[in-house]
Amino acid sequence: MEGKRVKNMAHEEVSAAAATNSDSNSLSFEVALERLQQTVRKLETGELSLEDSLKAFEEGVHLARHCQTQLGAAEQKVELLMSAAAQPEGGVVVQPFQVPSTPQGTSGGPRS
Known about the structure:
With 112 residues, this protein is mostly helical. The protein has a domain at 2-77: Orthogonal Bundle (Helix Hairpins). 69% of the residues lie in helices and 0% in strands. It has helices at residues 2-25, 29-45, 50-85. Helix 1 runs parallel beside helix 3 and helix 2 packs antiparallel against helix 3. The longest helix has 36 residues, at 50-85. Residues 5-11 have low confidence and may be disordered.
């Protein structure tokens, strides 16, 4: 009976984490960054239980990845605009691009 309860709790935590991840994907950069800052402040107080700290940390990781993805897309837009501005005609040509998807489980860290 106890093992079944532990499995149910683990399943609920995984489901909650997936919901947090999908919720953060629909946030604007500014809102996601503010939530990330709030999460960091909560963790820095040291007043959360271990379980709550882990949940907050996981949410922070998802929010950080979301912000990194949005910043990468913005950087690509700027690069396209700048390269178009350097054309001999001097005109700005907007070119379509695909936002790179970050596979789940990778950091999607800054490019060099």
